[in-house]
Design goal:
The protein is an all-alpha fold. The protein contains 17 helices and no strands. The protein has one domain: MetI-like fold, CATH 1.10.3720.10. It is found in: Cell membrane.
């Protein structure tokens, strides 16, 4: 407490963030009561009848349950195994660039997509893959790989690849910032000593750079595992506009939105969302316990 009062000016800067989290993250938690009620907006929380785990049972027995879980896990795992290492690899590559002007240009170009909304990005992807003057179809036709334009966003087999690739392109630059900062903190004398000993640049990356940023990688890996059931919402909602893609695009978040908001089944949607939250907290805790053995963990 004494240290906090000595840092009162710094602590004051944290107060808006604490208020934001409290208002938008903690107060709405009262709404999970709907998962155990037949909630009616006219009766409210106090007068809606309690039904126990009825809506959870309905969700687990729903015909689309396994399809939703499969899509959620597959998309999340693809983003984890392909999307998670991508910023690390980019950061390692940028760290090896010696020409500062070229490095700044690459960083600016790779950072820019992060600041574009998914509405703009999805519009760009739809235009790129369009059968009417879409750049991808024109390119494939010009090199004689296809004869007729392909409607990529109407073929379920292509959707996961398009979704994951678009997500990586959008976030790879911004995600590399933290890793570049961690790499910048490595003592340059270690590289000099390794160079004198005859270590190549590749060996220096493997034996010095990567081990030095392992703590940062582990922390972000724990957070990524905790969000494993968050396969995405805006990107899927905007890219999977074709009903043909429903079987490969419907994940927990889009399902909750469709059932809860569009169909007004508030209690059922809350039960599905609460199921996701509980599983996510459990996976986060488990990942943290495993990471703690290596000496790097969130708590």
């Amino acid at each position: 407490m004494r240290r906090m009062f000595k840092q009162w000016d710094i602590q004051m800067m944290v107060i808006p963030a604490l208020i934001f989290v409290f208002v938008f993250s903690y107060i709405p938690m009262y709404g999970v009561l709907m998962a155990f009620q037949d909630y009616s907006i006219y009766k409210g929380f106090l007068h809606s009848p309690w039904v126990g785990f009825k809506h959870f049972e309905m969700f687990f027995n729903a015909p689309e349950f396994w399809t939703i879980m499969r899509n959620t896990l597959v998309i999340s795992l693809l983003k984890l195994f392909i999307g998670f290492p991508a910023p690390i690899i980019l950061a390692l590559m940028l760290n090896e660039v010696r020409k500062a002007s070229f490095k700044r240009v690459v960083q600016t170009i790779s950072y820019l997509p992060h600041f574009l909304s998914w509405v703009i990005v999805s519009g760009f992807v739809v235009s790129l893959l369009s059968t009417d003057n879409g750049s991808i179809n024109i390119l494939l036709q010009s090199v004689h790989l296809i004869k007729e334009p392909i409607n990529f966003l109407a073929i379920p087999e292509y959707f996961w690849s398009i979704l994951v690739t678009t997500g990586i392109w959008k976030e790879i630059g911004f995600g590399s910032i933290v890793y570049l900062a961690a790499i910048a903190g490595v003592d340059p004398h270690i590289y000099e000593a390794a160079s004198i000993d005859g270590a190549s640049r590749l060996k220096q990356i493997i034996n010095i750079t990567v081990p030095s940023i392992i703590p940062v990688i582990v922390i972000f890996m724990i957070l990524a595992i905790g969000n494993l059931l968050s396969a995405g919402f805006e990107d899927i909602l905007l890219l999977a506009t074709n009903p043909v893609l429903r079987d490969v695009s419907d994940v927990l978040d889009t399902y909750v939105y469709r059932i809860g908001i569009q169909n007004s089944r508030y209690s059922y949607a809350t039960a599905a969302g609460l199921f996701k939250a509980v599983i996510s907290v459990g996976m986060l805790t488990l990942a943290n316990l495993v990471a703690r053995r290596s000496g790097n963990s969130l708590w």
